[in-house]
Amino acid sequence: MKNYMKAIENYVNFTGRARREEYWLFWLANFVIQVILMTIDASVGTGQALFMLYSLFIFLPSLAVTVRRLHDSNRSGWWVLIAFIPVVGLIAGIYFMVVDSTPGDNDFGPNPKGITA
């Protein structure tokens, strides 16, 4: 939950780097919250109102943590647009998110792991 809150607090921070741990634990917490909200929406009969409000709330933090994750592997944040390419974009996007950090400093700042080259 700490990584989720870190991403929420840095919701407009598109600079710096985010470790794999921060990125994937943010998405895990996000997934759990979405499932809970969909269950509440279904049981209360609100359609998808809570889920849609949460999706609007989480859009900028999720974009920011994804850009910072790309920065960690020394890629520009514009690589996030690769997701719009069917199939190839999905595969490349997943690869970019699981690849290890660039050791030491890169163009986007110091390594959050503290690894030096």
Q: Can you tell me about this structure?
A:
The protein is mostly helical. It is 58% helix and 0% strand. The protein has helices spanning 2-9, 20-44, 49-72, 88-98. The chain is globular. It starts with a helix and ends in a 19-residue tail after the last helix. The mean pLDDT is 91.
Q: Distance N terminus to C terminus?
A: 30 Å
Largest sheet: none
* Secondary structure category: mainly alpha
> Can you count the beta strands?
0
Total count of helical runs of at least 4 residues: 4
Dominant shape: globular
Order of helices and strands: HHHH
Q: What percentage of the residues does DSSP assign to strands (E)?
A: under 5%
Q: Any idea what the radius of gyration is?
A: 16 Å
Would you identify the regions where 5 or more consecutive residues have pLDDT less than 50?
A: none
In which range does the helix fraction lie?
Answer: 55-70%
On the 0 to 100 scale, the average pLDDT is 91
Keywords:
mainly alpha, globular, 4 helices, single chain, 117 residues
Write the layout of secondary structure elements.
Elements: H1 2-9, H2 20-44, H3 49-72, H4 88-98
Short characterization:
Helices cover 58% and strands 0% of the residues. With 117 residues, it is an all-alpha fold.
